[in-house]
Amino acid sequence: GAVVSQHPSRVICKSGTSVKIECRSLDFQATTMFWYRQFPKQSLMLMATSNEGSKATYEQGVEKDKFLINHASLTLSTLTVTSAHPEDSSFYICSARERGSYNEQFFGPGTRLTVL
Amino acid sequence: GENVEQHPSTLSVQEGDSAVIKCTYSDSASNYFPWYKQELGKRPQLIIDIRSNVGEKKDQRIAVTLNKTAKHFSLHITETQPEDSAVYFCAASMGAGNKLTFGGGTRVLVKP
Lengths: 116, 112
Prior knowledge:
The complex is a heterodimer of chains A (116) and B (112).
Chain A: E1 4-7, E2 10-13, E3 19-25, E4 30-38, E5 45-51, E6 57-58, E7 67-73, E8 76-81, E9 90-98, E10 106-107, E11 111-115
Chain B: E1 4-7, E2 10-14, E3 19-25, E4 32-38, E5 45-51, E6 56-59, E7 62-67, E8 72-77, E9 86-93, E10 100-102, E11 106-111
Parallel strand pairs in B: 2-11
Antiparallel strand pairs in B: 1-3, 3-8, 4-5, 4-9, 6-7, 7-8, 9-10, 9-11
């Protein structure tokens, strides 16, 4: 159990376009989802925390108007990178915490974004 | 906020030897400490975790120790195998649904 999927797994886009990444909990209800960004050979940096039905909480330095997060249901959260630029190229990973779970987060497989 | 430091950044061991990775955290309110293994291009996988009411936890070849007074915790891998080669991350959380703060990662290479 506790499977998290992400779509797409890989996306290449032109500079200035917007890209939407989906994160789904397949076999459990996720009251909280987290979005991370990971640059090559670096650690996971939390971008925002998303609670179902409420606005996301962004970490310091993360532009909320550039990285739009929606958590409309207990199984789906989306991250939209608006007006993407080459410096936004990164590995984006979501994680989800099951309703009633105290701590453990289950990670999605990640989305590799390349902005040309 | 919480700050987690992890050492070493790279670790090369001979197959069969032990590997130890150490992390320190800054916020004494943190009470949940997971360790993740990440292979290249893949998702982080939880390998073991420990809560602040426990000093040590073991699962086969993997063990984690926690020293709350010193605010540090360590991952121990015994009898290392080539498939243990990966990047390992420690993390800390204040529990009750709070976010994880990750260490910088340790790249472990097990040489056959």
